[in-house]
Specification:
The chain is α+β, with helices and mostly antiparallel strands and about 850 residues long. It has seven domains: about 5-55 and about 90-170, Rossmann fold; about 195-235 and about 520-650, Topoisomerase I, domain 2 (Orthogonal Bundle), CATH 1.10.460; about 240-305 and about 440-515, Topoisomerase I, domain 3 (Distorted Sandwich), CATH 2.70.20.10; about 315-435, Topoisomerase I, domain 4, CATH 1.10.290; about 670-715, no CATH class; about 730-765, no CATH class; about 780-820, no CATH class. The protein has a seven-stranded mixed beta sheet with strand order 2-3-4-1-7-8-9, with helices on both faces. A six-stranded antiparallel barrel has the order 10-11-14-13-12-15. A four-stranded antiparallel beta sheet has the order 26-27-28-29, with no helix packed on it. Helix 5 runs antiparallel to helix 19, helix 8 (about 315-325) packs across helix 9 and helix 16 (about 540-550) packs parallel to helix 19. The chain starts with a strand and ends with a strand. About 35% of the residues are buried. GO terms for molecular function: DNA binding; DNA topoisomerase type I (single strand cut, ATP-independent) activity; zinc ion binding.
């Protein structure tokens, strides 16, 4: 057995190819792919590949057989971190007929290479899941992941230059031990919470007569609660009409307009803080008309609007949702392609919006140089000043990854070949990157207050002085950008100073109406996850969330959680509906609302179940594990305390579920399976391609289990009575025979029969001949050229299928002869 110097364990095959290529440049060896060994050969180095996580969480019954029973009496399920078990991943075969991924063979090949190597290098994605999936494999196969011969390749970009730089600066894997602990603790916490909570509420629902499997999650349920609260708020909203005043004053240097600002002690204000009396504005105008007042305060300062920060994944998803109506998962898919396949953008699942100062030596100037070579960005890139340092340069705010930026790999050829969505996402990433090398925008901001007859009026104005970075993105920038542009009012005021005398000239009463909160979109729901304190009803938790800067979910999980709540999964580049009882729905315009089931579920839960505050604090605790501030088992013990409390309160919970999709059982449901004699027959639904109406069928209850029964029975459809010609040989293809078909679709032709070929590929059809009326075949009495033929009109709504609908007309279409029951009439 030959000795291997280093074996690199990459997370994906394409990543392995990129690493092998970079090693080849460093060592001078040409990489050769060996599918038999499951690796690339580069001199004495080997680069193996995985297919994501090779292991899955062990089922509860592997710890205790009693946990196979899903009843409430067997809860809680408790597993200590030291007892945690994982099994080799065995996915079902793809539906396109390809064989399933053989994770067992993959692990066996990687383990064999590791036994021959002097050094093992973990090369998963540069984040906590990428750390976990390699470390858990090594540990399961008997290697010490934190031994002296194990290194970590950590790289935020798959461009060759960045990989070479990372290969030259690899660190011991033990330096990333706390990241592994955080990832493992998150995995166990989600497993414990999801299993216990889902089984708890599913059993409660079944005991109360609902046939449904309820899915709960540590992050999923609070996000659903957020949407439900918004929907209930919208449903209960009642608009309030309010009134105001826009007043015009005369100054010695000119006139100006300001708005009335009633004080909090004003008798005109209602409890809502608004003026609700329509008579008040006119009273105020009469009160100040022709009266002298004075400028109480006047301030004019030049303000700078700093450059918007580079994108984190969430900020990129928010902007793409607003500007391009792309969903969170669509933006993530495109960003992964730009990073993984095209290598023209850095790691997409970044939570940071900042740069390290060390990036000024290579990563940033390379990206800037590449953009200068692009026709689409040449003008903007040429004007960029690399000497400018925006607020993005901050080492303290970069943890695993810096903000998402272009790489030096982009060329005109690659850019011109991008798909429309890829080009949109790359453009905003590149534009935001270039903003960092333009000066801040500047504007003169004016604010003033006027006192007149005991009333206060205020005005604000902003006049652009220098566009700075706004020459790139201008006023179209979305609200998510980190911009402090002040008031958008462009009012211009004459020169004045505090204490100047003014006179009330005129004014206009104004009115408005409060608006109900908008439905969530992917953008606003992501913003709510980033700022949960704005939506937390509990004042104490609200303050804690705001002071700690806590968030809901992570960059890697939010898009997938949204899909799960929508009852969808990602299949390749497309999403597929897999759940007939989703908790949320997304309209064609991108509006996200809760379903009736989702609302009734949240209304059945105790408030702590969907508390934003608790979830955000748990996410913060996981971050504390990474910093070594909390022991993982301490966190898991506190989580189990919460779970036990909820189980103890279960008898008081009433599951009042609504909006369930119920499958009507077919005859035979509940009977013993005639094939395996173990399972029972259940009714399932299948939606044929191109149709919306599901078809029901019977199948064995053991069908979906490994090695289960394959019994399927479709209900017998009533046979159509044959018409003349049924069974004859097809006159077109000469292979099939003619069969009688009937139109079942709701239309004027419903119930009409015709003949078609039994061979699916043959398109032959023959409609039955209409029995001729008397006079058929005679010369047309109108045009004298054509012949009289018998035809049949469409059936009218409510008309019997047996009604005689025949009429006569001329064989020449242009002729107007028509005869119904011996009554000639014109068409």
């Amino acid at each position: 057995m030959s000795q291997i110097d280093r074996v690199f364990i990459a997370e994906k095959p394409n990543m392995a190819a990129d690493i092998a290529s970079a090693i080849g440049v460093l060592t001078g060896h040409t990489p050769k792919k060996s599918s038999a060994e499951g690796c690339w050969l580069v001199g004495e180095d080997r680069v193996a590949w995985l297919y994501g996580h090779c292991y899955d969480s062990a089922p509860p019954e592997q710890y205790n057989p009693i946990w196979k029973n899903r009843g409430l009496e067997n809860l809680p399920i408790v597993v200590k971190m030291a007892d945690w078990q994982i099994n080799i991943n065995r996915p079902p075969p793809p539906k396109d007929g390809r064989p399933p991924l053989n994770y067992e063979a993959t692990v066996r090949k990687v383990a064999s290479l590791c036994r021959q190597a002097r050094t093992i290098v973990g090369a998963g994605d540069a984040e906590r899941e990428g750390q976990l999936l390699v470390d858990e494999l090594l540990k399961k196969q008997g290697f010490d992941p934190w031994g002296s011969n194990v290194l970590r390749l950590w790289c935020s970009s798959l461009s060759q230059k960045d990989l070479i730089s990372s290969l030259q600066s690899m660190k011991p894997n033990k330096d990333y031990y706390l990241i592994y602990l955080e990832a493992l603790c998150r995995q166990i916490a989600d497993w414990l919470y999801g299993l216990n909570e889902s089984r708890l509420y599913t059993d409660l629902a079944k005991r109360q007569g609902f046939d449904i499997n309820i899915r709960n999650g540590r992050v999923m349920t609070p996000i659903l609660g957020l949407v439900v609260r918004r929907d209930i708020e919208r449903a209960n909203f009642k608009p309030i009409r309010y009134f105001g005043v826009t007043a015009r004053f005369q100054h010695q240097n000119g006139q100006f307009t300001v708005k009335w600002l009633p004080s909090k002690a004003s008798p005109y204000l209602a409890e809502s803080g608004r003026v609700l009396d329509a008579k008040v504005p006119q009273q105020i105008l009469e009160k100040i008309s022709g009266r002298e007042g004075k400028i109480a305060t006047y301030q004019k300062v030049r303000k700078k609007t700093p450059q918007p920060l580079p994108f984190s994944l969430a900020k990129l998803q928010i902007l793409c949702s607003r500007r391009f109506q792309m969903s969170a998962d669509e933006t993530l898919s495109v960003a992964i392609k730009l990073y993984d396949n095209l290598k023209i953008a850095t790691y997409p699942r970044s939570s940071s919006q900042h740069f390290r100062h060390a990036m000024a030596a290579d990563v940033v100037p390379e990206a800037l140089t590449a953009l200068r070579g692009l026709t689409a960005f040449k003008g903007a890139a040429d004007s960029a000043d690399f000497a400018i340092r925006s607020p993005a340069w901050n080492d303290a705010k970069v943890s695993d990854h810096h903000g998402i930026i272009p790489t030096g790999n982009i060329t005109n050829e690659i850019y011109n070949s991008l798909a429309p969505d890829e080009k949109k996402v790359f453009d905003v990433i590149a534009q935001r990157f270039l903003c960092q090398f333009y000066p801040p925008a500047e504007h003169d901001a004016t604010s003033l207050t006027v006192l007149c007859e005991g009333e206060t009026f205020s005005g604000n104005g902003s006049v652009p002085v220098s566009l700075g970075w706004k020459v790139l993105s201008g006023a179209e920038d979305d609200a998510d950008e980190d911009e402090d542009g002040g008031d958008k009012d462009t009012s211009i005021f004459p020169p004045m100073t505090s204490g100047d005398v003014v006179t009330g000239v005129s004014g206009t009463p104004t009115s408005g109406e409060t608006k109900k909160p908008a439905e969530f979109t992917d953008a606003t729901l992501l913003e709510a996850c980033l700022s949960p304190h704005l939506h937390e009803p509990d004042p104490a938790l609200k303050k804690k969330l705001k002071d700690g800067g806590y968030i809901i979910g992570t960059e890697a999980t939010r898009a997938a959680i949204f899909l799960k709540l929508l009852g969808m999964v990602k299949v390749g580049d497309k999403t597929k509906v897999v759940d007939k009882n989703p908790y949320m729905q997304r309209s064609a315009k991108g509006k996200i609302t809760s379903t009736e089931l989702g609302r009734s579920l949240i209304c059945s839960y105790p408030q702590e179940e969907y508390s934003l505050g608790m979830t955000a604090l748990w996410e913060a605790a996981l971050g504390a594990i990474r910093k070594g501030q909390i022991q993982p088992q301490v966190f898991l013990d506190k989580l189990m305390e919460t779970i036990r409390k909820r189980i103890s309160e279960a008898p008081n919970i009433r599951m009042n579920l609504k909006g369930l999709h119920v499958i009507q059982p077919l005859p035979g449901t509940g009977e013993k399976c005639p094939e395996c004699h173990s399972g029972t027959l259940i009714t399932r639904e299948y939606v044929p391609t191109g149709k919306r109406t599901p078809e029901r069928y019977l199948t064995c209850s053991l069908r979906k289990k490994e090695g289960g029964c394959n019994f399927v029975k479709w209900p017998d459809k009533p046979k159509t009575a044959p018409i003349a010609g049924d069974g004859e040989k097809c006159p077109k293809c000469k292979q099939g025979h003619l069969v009688t078909c009937e139109i079942h679709k709701a239309s004027p032709n419903k119930g009409k029969k015709f003949l078609a070929c039994s061979v699916r590929e043959c398109d032959f059809k023959r409609w039955p001949e209409i029995p001729p009326l008397p006079g058929t075949g005679q010369p047309c009495p109108v045009c004298k050229k054509g012949l009289v033929v018998t035809r049949e009109r469409k059936r009218k709504e409510g008309e019997r299928a047996s009604a005689d609908r025949r009429f006569q007309c001329c064989s020449i279409r242009e002729c107007k002869f028509v005869k119904f029951h011996d009554k000639p009439r014109n068409k």
